Amino acid sequence: MLPDSDEQIAADLTERLAVQLRGAADSGSAIPPIRNFLAKGDVVGAYEIQEHNTRHWIAQGRRLVGRKIGLTSKSVQKQLGVDEPDFGMLFADMAVTDGEEIAFSRLMQPKVEAEVALVLGRSLNFERHTVADLIAATDYALPAIEVVGSRISNWDIHLVDTIADNASSSLFVLGTRPCRLTDIDLIGCTMTMQRRGEEISAGSGADCLGNPLNAAIWLANMMARVGRPLQAGDIVLTGALGPMVAVQPGDVIEARIAGLGSVRACFGNQ
């Protein structure tokens, strides 16, 4: 256990870095990597920064509606130089309707990835969950596009940077045709993502930790461990099915996932 003075220093650092990340989001000006101020590989410290901002945002009236799992695709892990997943919080004001225009000015260094979203009908409060628990708790699945963004300059991130930055979250778009898990092959389902008809990313359910349910189990266990268990009604973005791709003003991105249908993210020119 840290001495009181060291605990206060750590708490002050957590608050200072959390404020810097919020300031970057508010101003649109990215900041240097968080890892420059933390001990090497300090995942616990990075999650404390994320939790500090989560509590701040909830106190400000934002509504927590789910979680995202990041870094589940080996290709995305390779892109970012990490080797394990992370998680971030989803708030109601991050949700975008399928096909709704997204103002490009509200984004920072945006990229997109296609995912399977699960919507829970039951809470997941166990210390350790099984596949059966996840299947029983899932009400339905939807195709999703996550719009990720980084408050860190030039996407110069390691694991602790993205964790502190709410898993590099930005917005998410959900499809509107719910599907039961019995109607989907979550491992074999193929994904293609196109920009105005041109394929820009491809993958399958197997590219998400072998099965999107594996990612959801990891998340459910982590959430119970940190005291924010998944609740009935929560949205779970289970992770990328293929490489994430940078987007530009005016882009129209469509993701198709076999058995789930399609979803579009439309970006304004400004």
Précis, in short:
The protein has helices at residues 4-27, 43-59, 74-80, 131-137, 159-164, 212-226; strands spanning 64-70, 86-91, 95-97, 101-102, 111-120, 138-148, 171-174, 190-195, 198-204, 235-240, 245-246, 252-257, 261-267. By secondary structure, it is an alpha+beta fold. A hairpin with a 3-residue loop joins strand 12 (252-257) and strand 13 (261-267).
Could you explain how this protein is built, in words?
The chain is α+β, with helices and mostly antiparallel strands and 270 residues long. Helices cover 28% and strands 29% of the residues. It has six helices and 13 strands. The strands form two sheets. Strands 1, 2, 3, 5, 6, 7, 10 and 11 form an eight-stranded mixed β-sheet that branches. A five-stranded mixed β-sheet has the order 4-13-12-8-9, with no helix packed on it. The mean pLDDT is 94.
The dominant shape is globular
Secondary structural class? alpha+beta
Total helical elements: 6
* Quaternary structure: single chain
N-end to C-end Cα span: 50 Å
User: What order do the helices and strands follow?
Assistant: HHEHEEEEHEHEEEHEEEE
Strand content: 25-35%
Q: How many distinct beta strands?
A: 13
Query: What is the mean predicted local confidence, pLDDT?
Result: 94
Described by strand count, sense and barrel closure, the largest sheet is: 8 strands, mixed
Task: Round the Cα radius of gyration to an integer and report it.
Answer: 18 Å
Poorly predicted regions: none
Helix percent band? 25-40%
